[in-house]
Amino acid sequence: MNYILPMSNAHGSKWIRPERRLAIYARDGFSCAYCGAEDALSLDHVMPRELGGGHENENLVTCCVSCNSARRDSSMREWFVMLRDRGIITDGLAVKIRRTVGRKVDIALGKRLLAARQGI
To answer: Is the pLDDT reported for residue 6 higher than 60?
Structure first.
């Protein structure tokens, strides 16, 4: 699997630590919350930053780079229309995302995954 670490915001500062990122990927089953892709993973803000969303675990889902780039700062409603236009079935997707972000993020697991990735 290809994980993108670390992610930077538009200002170039790192907004999330690698172990937290990996813990969120693990919570989400190491696949894009929208299309199910398992490669080139990043994180997406459920409520975009431009629309008032924050960096809390409950506002972050694993997302492939393709979906993340396509979504940009669209609302979830607008994004679901775009997904349907791409042939992705969105029935039940909002419920799945709410359940996903409601689960605990295991930072200790993220630290273990990071150590394994670094060969420590």
So the answer is: no
Our measurement of the distance from residue 16's CA atom to the centroid of its chain's CA atoms, rounded to an integer in Å, reads 12
Asked if residues 107 and 16 have their Cβ atoms less than 8 Å apart, the reply is: no
User: Is the distance from CB of 113 to CB of 26 less than 8 angstroms?
Assistant: yes
pLDDT digits (tens, 9 = 90+) for 25-51: 999 999 999 999 999 999 999 999 999
**Under 8 Å between Cβ of 53 and 44:** no
Name the residue with tokens 């992610």.
7
Q: How many domains does the chain have?
A: 1
Determine, yes or no, domain membership for 113: no
Cβ neighbours of residue 96 closer than 8 Å, sequence gap 6 or more: 33
